Hints:
Structural class: alpha+beta
Oligomer: single chain
Strand order of the largest sheet: 1-2-3-4
Bound molecules: zinc ion
Shape: elongated
Amino acid sequence: MIAKVMATQEERERTEHHIGLALRSIWVTFQKEGIHKYPAALEDPRLADVSFLGHPHRHIFHFRVSISVFHNDRNIEFIQFKRWLEGLYNSENAVLELDYKSCEMIADDLYRQINLKYPGRHVSIEVSEDGENGCSIAYMDTQAPQEIFPSPVQLGDN
Ligand SMILES: [Zn+2]
């Protein structure tokens, strides 16, 4: 038999308080084909062992984008957000391009666009080459609300 654990009123209030203070975010993933190169690899003797990076080569860049949300009910809808991100790279009206950039540069470019559309959010972006090696960059907006839900109960400092 499993004994049913009953929370006290104070424990329930404390739990709700923690839920109210939680940092919430959603994340989406997508992939884009791109060709880039690292011209310095052809010249710099310290990069001699990876000199092939100096020539254009293809990757599937893997993205994972996380963004803070202010409530639990599709504040930012996953699929709409993902489609919007992918659309930034579509050839017809692309505002971003992958070519010849490092993963870190790609992430910063993407953040600039996200911050225009969704200001006041914490954003974290991972970009990798073929899911093997990549970067992870956290863009913390210090003006972003820290307390998402107003806490329904006021607890003492004890
Ligand atoms: Zn590469």
